[in-house]
Amino acid sequence: MRLNGVFIEDTFAEAFAMSGARAVITGRTQAWAREAATRMTGFATSVIGCKCEAGIEGDLPADATPDGRPGTSVLLFAFNPEGVQTRIVERIGQCVLTCPTTACYDGLAEEPVRISVGGQLRYFGDKFQLSKVIDGRRYWRVPVMEGEFLVEETFGARPAVGGGNFLILGESADAALAAAEAAVAAMGRVRGVILPFPGGIVRSGSKVGSRHYSLKATTNDAYCPTLRGMVESALPDGVNSVLEIVIDGLTVEAVEEAMRVGIPAACRPGVHSISAGNYGGKLGQYALHLRKLLEGVPA
Amino acid sequence: MTATVLTPLDLPRVPLEAEAIAPERLAGRSEREVALLPVQIGNATAQLGEFFRVRGAGSDEIRIDGDVSRVKGIGAGMTRGRLVVEGGVGMHAGARMRGGELVVMGDAGAWAGAEMVGGVLRIGGSAGDHAGAAYPGSRRGMTGGALLVGGNAGRELGGVMRRGLIAVRGSAGDYSGFNMIAGSIVLCGGAGRRTAAGMKRGSLVAFRSLELLPTFRYACTYRPEFLALLLRTLRDLFGFAIDARYVSGLYRRYSGDFAELGRGEILIWTSD
């Protein structure tokens, strides 16, 4: 299978079951909402090293937020709802509560599994906090030096998918980067997903375990171009750089849609082929076959 | 769903007590059975059909196509459905209601929505005294739901309110929010004397200046984010028109009542 002349390998991305939440941050301006969201999603690339994966889902116009102010939607993923609660409370507490003008709301109100967020952060108010029930949802008003921080008491947590991915095998580093940037730009329009790595792109894909050290993950030597000739390389001739795009989503359908949008955008001149990372289907619950996903996409 | 239509006939000068008129008490009954439902007049029990012409079998949707200002307890305790009165209602309309929607196109007598637990009570005209309030001897007034008044409200609006939302388009009488425990009252017009006297917690919001008790203290002038949320809910969910300048405006916050717990607040919109 080829898209725009780029070979699509007959392989699959192996994705994992996770738990996810959506936080809607609003601010006096879009810039302040974005600022809080950016801080909140820092150091959240991999659940292995960062305890969670988080990213900005997108900006929201004022008429799409609960309080009528511009907002930014953040998705956060961990292995289970308890992990989501711990991490989202830490991050909202340190990065949103502290940020001028912001408020924070649950973006998954229909989910039956609830995690306590404002219910934890309210204690910062030292018994001066006030609650307000509006349309059946409880909010906490925490007094702060600026005025008040408003945060919803509980957030929804739902089963989610982490680790959707594809690899861009480029003839040069510049070509691989340009293709990855194009893919990220296209995938930014898909809702329900985030790309948790810097700029949405990973240059250091990993394999499970280590040859010499007691590490859970080490460099994916089979895809490192500098190791060609030293290891059993997975790289075809002519490939000199590989970049990966990792996708987490609230549903497997959203992850699939992101891949369906992103891969064709990455199929540009200078790209040799598109592949995906997997563990032979032994570890993840979801196998996202590239060619099946791309059926119907014009070649 | 076809509505059950009740047309008032010659109503007596002595108020009729007709708590039978509620969706769940009419639903499932035939037209004849609805007409046989008991009502109270003075110390005598009568039948609904003596005072109302009944059209249609009982259903979750009821329409009273006339003024029933001398009928008490319409929709009291209702839990579901929709009851529309194309005129005024007497005392205790929607009192202790738990769900559904009661729409009164005219005025409502005293104790409208008293001790409401849930649902929506819309009064197109004015509400009498004690709307949404606690009955004497009760520890709590309204504990949920929404009471929306298109005209003015009488005295002791939302007295001992514990939770829920009250909004009044016009002005409210004396002692609005009297002994409030929690919940929210929004007054688009002014209010009488001793507003929120004895308030423990809760929010009383006014778009016009109020005469405040000395036991309330000025805190600051700010934009309460929760209020934008509350007013947008009032506007978007309940269709209660709120001018945009109030939704995103500045408010003067007064804490009180320090004669009591002092955890409540009065928020007064300011154009400054």
Describe the structure.
The complex is a heterodimer of chains A (299) and B (272). Chain A has 299 residues and is of the alpha+beta class. Chain A has 2 domains: 2-14 and 160-293, Alpha-Beta Plaits; 19-158, Alpha-Beta Plaits (2-Layer Sandwich). Chain A is 23% helix and 35% strand. Chain A has helices at residues 30-40, 47-50, 81-96, 118-121, 173-187, 252-266, 290-293, and strands at 2-3, 6-8, 12-26, 53-60, 71-78, 103-106, 114-116, 130-134, 137-144, 147-152, 154-156, 158-170, 193-194, 206-208, 217-219, 241-249, 271-275, 286-289. In chain A, the strands form 4 sheets. In chain A, strands 1, 2, 3, 4, 5, 6, 12, 13, 16, 17 and 18 form an 11-stranded mixed β-sheet that branches. A 3-stranded antiparallel β-sheet of chain A has the order 8-9-10. In chain A, a hairpin with a 2-residue loop joins β1 (2-3) and β2 (6-8). Chain A is elongated. The relative contact order of chain A is 0.20. The model of chain A has no long low-confidence stretch (mean pLDDT 96). Chain B is mostly beta strands and 272 residues long. Chain B has a single domain (60-270), classed as 3 Solenoid (Pectate Lyase C-like). Chain B has helices at residues 23-26, 31-35, 225-236, 244-247, and strands spanning 4-8, 16-17, 38-41, 44-47, 52-55, 61-64, 71-72, 82-85, 101-104, 120-123, 143-149, 163-168, 184-187, 203-206, 217-222, 250-256, 264-270. In chain B, strands 5-1-6-8-9-10-11-12-13-14-17-16-15 form a 13-stranded mixed β-sheet. In chain B, strands 4-3-2-7 form a 4-stranded mixed β-sheet, with no helix packed on it. In chain B, a hairpin with a 7-residue loop joins β16 and β17 (264-270). Chain B starts with a strand and ends with a strand. Classes of the chains: A alpha+beta (299), B mainly beta (272). Chains A and B meet through β8 and β10 of A and α3 of B.
